[in-house]
Specification:
Blueprint: H1 2-29, H2 36-53, H3 57-70, H4 75-115, H5 139-196, H6 200-221, H7 225-237, H8 244-264, H9 269-288, H10 294-305, H11 309-322, H12 327-339, H13 343-356, H14 361-373, H15 377-390, H16 395-407, H17 411-424, H18 429-441, H19 445-458, H20 463-475, H21 479-492, H22 497-509, H23 513-526, H24 531-543, H25 547-560, H26 565-577, H27 581-594, H28 599-611, H29 615-628, H30 633-646, H31 649-662, H32 669-677
């Protein structure tokens, strides 16, 4: 009992000591007795509220986050935090709205200034960007437009490829038919030789089977599937026993005959029935004699037509393995490899075909296309030339030769090749477009206009051709026509920055400055790295008294193309308008380093030197101008003024007197006379 009391007493003493320690800690923490934790929270909430009222939303949120970390269920802190977030969003939205309104005001002011004929500021000469050369393809909204345009272009490209493939197939069809006939004749000859080695009874049975199969093929040519099936069935029922190889050959022959029917009308009911029979008979042939190449070839062609590339490759490789001397097998294998983007394998297959049959033009054509994809342009050119050497009227091969020559800079050779392509295929739209592009590159805009016109007759809504026609019309100084085609191009691909830029040029040429501003602005928004619309939009801002907006655009352009003549010339003018002479001098000098013979830029540089206080440099610049352009009256006047400022009155009198003597009707005659009178 005593021990127990002592134990309890010690425990109670420990509790008392602990409580005293905690009490003292809280006393000192609270500063001598108040509720310090509550005071700190109250002060923090009050400070956060002040920050919100002052627009310092992030600072308020930082304070409130600390309170919520200590106590996530603090209702006051949560409420104030939500208030800060909403206020922050509202401020951001308001700022964005103000920015949009300001941009609209800038555009409206610029349009009004241009329409009113406001003079260019600072006497500067801002260069107009030349039209692009003819080609030989909210942020969320822009992204969506880009995706839609990319999908449209993908479909368009697939259609183009299919058209070209179809054209190539038509060009090669006759050669392939001849090749197939040769292969058939060889197969018949081999069977006849084999038949001659058989007994007379077996020979008679085999001849009956062959005749029945011929009868079935004739029925297929008449689209009489029922009659064909009857003849083929009877033929198979009369196969001589013990002749497995002959039996497999007949199944393979029937399968290939059904495939021919399918290939002529693959989507028809008869075509679908025929392909099923082809597959069934080909597989039976393989089962009866695995060494037969023909049924694998038939299955390979079926899979190729169904775009089942892996299956097609498997079957065609087996056909090539079993009959390596048949050039049609390696040719079709090459085409399947190409369509499945296995270009190195395709090249090997086509080269095998050309070795087996060197006068087979389609193999050389397809080899050329494969080599182009592999980046071996010279070898591709040689292959295409082999194709037209064998088949001179091979139009698509001539077109491909033209494309390679155009890419190599041989415009004349390209025009000759496109001309040959059109000689043999006058309505080939691709060749018409390519000829137009080549003629435009050579400076023959009238010729380009003619060919683009013919291309548009066949495909009036093609965006690229309308764009190219617009560029040609601008070059021919036919602005109204250019505007028509530029609008069609822009409508066909709203997210194409080049099309928008060219529409801006056409609008400007037609005096529609508001339309030009809109199109240039859209081109800028579509392509952050596109310099040309920034130059032209900057020029419009600059010419109409908005140098700050011009500088923003031109500085972006300078970041992308620091050595551009147009960019530097415009920047020189923009800085001159703001009297930032050192920067103006810097950019005019860079512009002259690109085009040293440009007298107008040199005059502007001299004016910038004057503004910067470098009169000696200004004098030398004016002297350089009148050396190459002795009748540049403004330069002579400015030179006289510069000499006067330098204190060289003799030289000033010389040049000003010479100016008045040689050009007594000079528009600034009074100014020159006033300066002379003061010397």
């Amino acid at each position: 009992m005593d021990k127990k009391k002592v134990f309890i007493g010690v425990g109670a003493g420990v509790v008392v000591v602990v409580l005293l320690i905690i009490g003292a800690f809280l006393f000192f923490r609270r500063g001598g007795g108040g509720d310090a934790v509550s005071d700190s929270r109250t002060n923090t909430l009050s400070l956060a509220r002040e920050y919100i009222q002052q627009g310092e939303y992030q600072r308020a949120l930082d304070l409130l986050d600390r309170l919520l970390i200590d106590n996530s269920s603090d209702i006051d802190a949560r409420s104030l935090r939500d208030e800060a977030i909403l206020a922050s969003r509202g401020a951001r939205d308001a700022a964005e709205q103000r920015a949009r309104e300001q941009e609209a005001l800038n555009r409206e002011a610029l349009t009004s200034a241009v329409s009113a004929g406001a003079a260019a500021s600072g006497g500067s000469n801002a260069a107009v960007q030349q039209p692009p050369q003819v080609r030989t393809p909210s942020a969320e909204e822009i992204a969506a437009q880009r995706r839609a345009e990319e999908e449209r272009q993908r479909v368009q490209e697939e259609n183009r490829i299919r058209q070209e493939e179809a054209a190539a197939a038509r060009a090669a069809a006759e050669a392939e038919r001849r090749a197939a006939a040769e292969a058939e004749a060889a197969r018949v000859k081999a069977q006849e030789e084999e038949l001659a080695r058989k007994s007379r009874e077996i020979q008679n049975q085999m001849r009956v089977v062959n005749d029945l199969i011929s009868q079935g093929k004739t029925a297929l040519e008449r689209n009489d599937l029922s009659g064909a099936s009857s003849s083929f069935g009877e033929a198979l029922s009369r196969l001589p026993p013990g002749e497995a190889r002959f039996e497999a050959q007949k199944y393979a022959e029937i399968a290939d005959a059904y495939y021919d029917t399918y290939s002529t009308a693959p989507d028809s009911e008869a075509g679908q029935a025929a392909v099923k029979e082809a597959i069934s008979h080909a597989r039976t042939a393989i089962q009866k004699d695995p060494s037969q190449a023909l049924p694998h070839y038939t299955l390979g062609k079926i899979n190729r037509d169904l775009r089942q590339w892996d299956n097609a490759i498997t079957e065609l490789k087996e056909a090539v393995r079993l009959d390596p001397g048949n050039y049609l097998y390696s040719f079709d294998l090459g085409r399947v490899y190409f369509n499945s983007r296995k270009y190195a394998d395709a090249r090997q297959a086509f080269e095998t075909t050309t070795h087996l049959k060197s006068d087979f033009a389609p193999a050389w054509y397809n080899l050329g296309g494969t080599l182009r994809v592999l980046g071996r342009q010279d070898e591709a050119l040689a292959a295409y030339r082999r194709a037209v050497g064998i088949t001179p009227d091979y139009a698509v091969a001539h077109r491909e030769i033209g494309r390679i020559l155009y890419a190599k800079g041989d415009t004349k050779g390209a025009i000759d090749s496109f001309g040959k392509a059109l000689q043999y295929a006058p309505s080939d739209v691709a060749s018409l477009r390519e000829m137009g592009a080549a003629l435009s590159a050579s400076g023959d805009y009238a010729g380009a206009e003619s060919y683009f016109g013919r291309a548009l007759q066949a495909a009036p809504d093609d965006g690229q051709t309308n764009y190219n026609m617009a560029v040609v019309k601008l070059a021919l100084e036919k602005p109204a026509d250019a505007l028509t085609y530029a609008k069609k191009a822009a409508d066909s691909a709203p997210s194409n920055a080049s099309f928008q830029y060219t529409l801006g040029l056409a609008c400007e040429e037609n005096g529609d400055i508001d339309g030009a501003i809109s199109s240039y602005t859209r081109a800028v928004s579509l392509d952050k790295a596109y310099v040309r619309p920034r130059i032209n939009l900057g020029r419009l801002y600059l010419e109409n008294g908005f140098p700050d907006q011009a500088l923003a655009l031109l500085t972006e352009a300078y970041s992308a193309e620091p050595n551009s003549f147009e960019v530097n010339n415009n920047l020189g003018a923009a800085y001159a308008s703001k009297e930032e002479w050192a920067k103006s001098v810097q950019h005019y000098e860079k512009a002259l380093s690109v085009d040293s013979g440009n007298a107008t830029v040199r005059v502007n540089l001299a004016r910038a030197y004057v503004g910067a206080g470098n009169l000696n440099a200004a004098r030398d610049a004016y002297l350089a101008v009148i050396k190459v352009a002795p009748n540049n009256w403004d330069a002579i006047l400015e030179l006289g003024k510069t000499y006067a400022s330098l204190g060289d009155h003799t030289s000033a009198k010389k040049y000003l007197s010479d100016l008045l003597t040689r050009n007594p009707d000079y528009s600034r005659k009074a100014e020159a006379e006033r300066i002379l009178g003061g010397l």
